[in-house]
Amino acid sequence: MAKFDATLKVLALSSVHQHPDNIRDDLGDLTQLASEIKSMGVMSPLLVYPHPDRAGDFVVQDGNRRRAAAAEAGLTEVPCVVFPAPTAERGPRADIETMLSTGRNHRPLSEHEVSKGIQGLLDLGMDITTVGKKFKMSRKEVQARAKVARQDDGVSKAFSAGRLGLDAVQRLQELEDSSEDPTLYERTVSRIENLAHGASVENVERTIAEVEREVAKEKVRADLDELGAEQAPDDASYSSKWDRINSENELSYDGHIEAGHVWRMEYYATEPTWYAKAAKEKQELSEAEKLDKQVQAKLNGMLAIVARQRVAYIVDAVQNKKADEDFAKKVMVEQIMFASRYEDTPQMLLGKIVSNEYPTEQDFDSRESWRENVGKFLARWPLAKLALVLKLVSSSQTEEKLAKLKGFERTSYERDGFHGGWNGVREYYELLADQLGYELDIDEVEAMQYSAKAEPKRNREMDLVENPDEVTATCQECSQEVVADSEWAGFCVNCIDDAAVSE
């Protein structure tokens, strides 16, 4: 067992000093802690070690908030666990590790304070992998925290103030590292800095998309100005004096200029829209119609950005958030009821499963009442059982077919990926066997063997039962290989048919 090289002492508060490199920017509200200390004393001793520059004094390694609260409560002495002075190499690193560990377990450190501590450890020589393992962070998170702690720009300030989350910071850092145009990052940060309440990662994505579009439009405008292209008037998109040039007319910028076309950058576009003088004036739009056109143009541009954000959010939420089982059961019940809605067969099967017979001869209202009651009943079942019921109800048409020999019919077109015919039957029997432990009846086996024998060109890999008297043979007429039995006459089905016709 490791030796505990420390002593418990009561020290004068005046001799115990706050750590000079405490990673906390703010000790927070000490009112409640000071009140508890005043009534009960310091229940958890401070961890201290000898001050490197002041003989007889000590530095707090853990307990800076307790020390400050004890002073606020009027205490003159505090209990301390006194450790030996740390080594020059290990000391600062051990202090920051302790602050990060205990600070995150007591009054939580702010995101900026955690990042400052991470950068401190890296500055003292601890590698990224070790920091990540010690504090359960990914390598990417450690790098992001270190970078934001080092920088003194708008992102760092917004992060320090709590107006940007770490995920938003990481997205901005990715933009800074990957963008070939530095102004894209600078303009995005400038815009986010002006948001009064900060920005989520979704807002950051939207801002990046908007700035990217603006930068692209500015470049196009500069190119068109250099070519001497004439800009269309503001009302060209809805004025009767101008005709829009169809996008199918793929002319170069020079081609449009030679044709006398004028250009306009629509709100949502990154390429110019070209216009030509109208051959015949159209009916002029009213002011309300003009305003409506402008609103439509703006919304079309923004909704495309929002759609990308929404999909990204959905993907992240599905991958990282805990699923709501009650919601899953509700969806499953809805799917069961939908799968059985328009046919009697699945509803009859469902009625038998829940012991509430489907009213086949009743009126519409009675059936709707039955469906409502069945839905409420199913909602109480476990999710796994609902999934099985859904699969069975969806397969009920297959069940109905198997009441006749024709349902076991085989064809020469059987292949994986095709869900009709025998493929559907095979999948249904496999479901019954795997999930319900069903074993084939002797008559089912015979029906499968009979149908298999009747179609020698079937896909034999899809057989569910063995056909023991079958052999592979060669037709005496056309030489193709066929599946035959002990009573085979030597000719395939086609050759037998041809012989019958010739006779």
Automatic annotation (TrEMBL):
<feature type="domain" description="ParB-like N-terminal">
    <location>
        <begin position="9"/>
        <end position="99"/>
    </location>
</feature>
<dbReference type="Pfam" id="PF02195">
    <property type="entry name" value="ParB_N"/>
</dbReference>
<protein>
    <recommendedName>
        <fullName>ParB-like N-terminal domain-containing protein</fullName>
    </recommendedName>
</protein>
<dbReference type="InterPro" id="IPR003115">
    <property type="entry name" value="ParB_N"/>
</dbReference>
<dbReference type="InterPro" id="IPR036086">
    <property type="entry name" value="ParB/Sulfiredoxin_sf"/>
</dbReference>
<dbReference type="InterPro" id="IPR050336">
    <property type="entry name" value="Chromosome_partition/occlusion"/>
</dbReference>
